[in-house]
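Quick one, probably user error.
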């Protein structure tokens, strides 16, 4: 005969007789020997705060845990139960012929903390006497006020002397809450002073302007404050283009109350170019004077070419302008196997390993007449190898800049343009100027795998990227980040494991930048890029776990879609191998949302290129060149794992 029974229950002060609420019961079921004559199931003692959910009920077993069947543990306590003690009763368990007894448990509901704050305000002559009201923090279970509301008051009236008066709330009661009070204050003042921040404008890359305060509302002949307001642009250094607030704060004087009015900082857009500190330069030697490109050999000034490497992409100055030339070997005086470019070489013409950077003007300034664009102020001579030009292609105007061997630091140049007129005239409203900033790039080592018919080949390449973002910001400030790839990013040759994969064409460049913690994305835009990379530019702001963007994560070291990110691409534009490219810049605007002392960190997390390669005897093959940031400590991995390469590291301050 199978017997299940209930022994005497421990119920403490319980007086509730009907069990109505059921909470999930968690059974422990490690292996145990059978048969077992007697088993005691002990319900737990739980403590929860008023308004909180009842946790899962997990009983314990004596002499040991077994896998019983049919066990049901219930309690009358719910998330809305008042403060008190409620039973936990278990029943219905079977385990073979074992006699089962039970010991009841309890749920103790304790008071929740409730903070009551007295209202604050300002009083000016002629105002009505204030009515102090309470505000509540910590109400739960659908409550809108404690059972007995507080009484709130202040001694301040409109007729009181100038000064600050406390406001208080007392007398609230509710058994479900442990109540604390926070006093407010009312300031009795003689007048309201309006403080307006001045407005200003600047171009990207310029220093932030000085913001000043203007005051109005002075009573009588008084024009002084105990503490004057301080004013500033509500942006970090190097803000993105757009209109952002200027703001004043901090004025203090017991006689007055203050009203602040924001001004506006208009940041005019600028272009950005990333230069390459490792660029090598020389000039055409007399032996190549009069040679017309493409040429199999280019002779350069003896000795000055040292530092160039085999398989060299060059920018060469000819009679028809600057041209990308591709040479497959070089020594100190000659480049061999050179193809590409047109025009005649002349003694003294420039040769460099840096690509000419083209910046598309219409992506910066909007509508313009391409014929009007002129260089108003060029970069200093030490920064550039040849004078900067304005060139046109397919009806678009581009600024073409070619850097010197080693720029000593950032610089800029100024371009004039007109919206409708074909001739730049600085004295007309139709014409304006735009700044082009030249920044020194930093190398981002990337690792990749190129798949060929014999398997994956590990590849490493360096992408040069300049970043332009703020170093410090206050909560609520606008923080800008410009990600500026250097020109000449298309891989010329991929070589590993004895296989040389020559790039024949490239497309779908993509730069992915996660939206960092401590910041909210305001907007993003793409600008610049040359005639090839700007025919189909794309920008996407991707959502958490959204299908609106592509991000590789199958290996676990690319960006996942569990965080939002921004990506840029040149779309389906095909680019021939060996070409020098100027990829579009990505400009982001964030609002600093983190607490003082925290940092906003983000950077490029992925680089992607679809390429057509020639892998020796295997012929032309399609390959996907996925790349991710790496460094010297983790390049041995296949694929190498790496963190995001930081480009923005902004400290949030008070």
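Nope, works fine. Designed sequence:
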């Amino acid at each position: 005969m199978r017997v299940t029974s209930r022994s005497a229950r421990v119920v403490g002060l319980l007086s509730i007789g009907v069990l109505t609420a059921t909470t999930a019961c968690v059974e422990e079921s490690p292996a145990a020997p059978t048969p077992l004559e007697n088993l005691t199931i002990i319900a737990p003692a739980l403590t929860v705060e008023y308004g909180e959910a009842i946790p899962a009920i997990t009983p314990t077993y004596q002499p040991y845990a077994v896998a019983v069947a049919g066990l049901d543990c219930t309690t009358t306590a719910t998330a809305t139960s008042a403060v008190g003690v409620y039973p936990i009763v278990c029943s219905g368990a079977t385990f073979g012929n074992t006699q089962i007894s039970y010991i009841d448990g309890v749920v103790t509901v304790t008071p929740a903390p409730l903070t009551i704050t007295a209202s604050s305000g300002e009083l000016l002559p002629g105002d009505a006497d204030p009515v102090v009201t309470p505000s509540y923090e910590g109400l739960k279970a659908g409550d809108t006020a404690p059972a007995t509301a507080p009484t709130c008051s202040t001694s301040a009236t409109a007729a009181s002397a100038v000064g600050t008066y406390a406001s208080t709330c007392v007398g609230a009661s509710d058994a479900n809450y442990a109540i604390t009070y926070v006093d407010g204050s009312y300031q009795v003042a003689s007048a309201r002073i309006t403080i307006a921040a001045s407005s200003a404008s600047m171009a990207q890359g310029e220093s932030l302007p000085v913001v000043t305060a203007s005051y109005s509302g002075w009573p009588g002949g008084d024009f002084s404050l105990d503490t004057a307001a301080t004013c500033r642009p509500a942006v970090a250094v190097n803000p993105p283009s757009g209109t952002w607030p200027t703001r004043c704060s901090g004025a203090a004087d017991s006689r007055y109350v203050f009203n602040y009015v924001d001004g506006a900082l208009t940041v005019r857009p600028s272009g950005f170019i990333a230069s390459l500190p490792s660029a090598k330069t020389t000039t055409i030697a007399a032996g190549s004077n009069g040679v017309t490109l493409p040429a199999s050999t280019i002779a350069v000034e003896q000795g000055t070419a040292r530092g160039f490497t085999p398989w060299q992409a060059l920018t060469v100055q000819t009679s028809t302008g600057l041209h990308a030339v591709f040479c497959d070997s070089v020594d100190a005086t000659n480049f061999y196997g050179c193809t590409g470019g047109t025009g005649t070489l002349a003694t003294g013409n420039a040769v460099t390993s840096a690509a000419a950077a083209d910046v598309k003007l219409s992506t910066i300034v909007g509508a313009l007449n391409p014929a009007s664009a002129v260089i108003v102020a060029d970069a200093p001579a030490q920064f550039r190898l040849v004078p900067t030009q304005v060139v046109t292609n397919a009806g678009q105007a581009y600024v073409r800049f070619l850097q010197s061997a080693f720029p000593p630091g950032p610089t800029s140049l100024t371009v004039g343009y007109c919206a409708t007129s074909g001739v730049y005239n600085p004295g007309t409203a139709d014409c304006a100027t735009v700044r082009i900033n030249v920044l020194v790039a930093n190398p981002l080592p990337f690792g990749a795998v190129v798949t060929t018919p014999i398997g994956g080949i590990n590849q490493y390449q360096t992408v040069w990227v300049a970043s332009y973002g703020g170093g410090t910001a206050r909560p609520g400030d606008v923080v800008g980040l410009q990600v500026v790839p250097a020109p000449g990013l298309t891989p010329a040759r991929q070589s590993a494991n004895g296989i040389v994969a020559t790039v024949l064409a490239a497309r779908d460049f993509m730069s992915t930048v996660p939206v960092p913690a401590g910041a909210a994305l305001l907007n993003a835009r793409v600008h610049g890029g040359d005639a090839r990379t700007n025919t189909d530019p794309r920008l996407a702001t991707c959502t958490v776990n959204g299908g609106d963007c592509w991000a590789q994560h199958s290996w676990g070291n690319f960006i996942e879609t569990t965080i939002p990110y921004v990506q840029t691409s040149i779309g389906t534009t095909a680019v021939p191998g060996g070409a020098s490219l100027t990829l579009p810049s990505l400009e982001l605007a964030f609002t600093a949302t983190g607490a003082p002392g925290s940092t906003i960190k983000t950077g490029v997390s992925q680089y992607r290129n679809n390429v057509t390669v020639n892998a020796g005897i295997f012929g032309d093959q399609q390959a996907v060149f996925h790349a991710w940031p790496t460094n010297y400590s983790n390049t041995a991995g296949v694929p190498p794992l790496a963190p995001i390469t930081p480009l923005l590291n902004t400290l949030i301050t008070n």
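Confidence is low (pLDDT under 50) at residues 1-32, 494-498, 551-560, 628-643.
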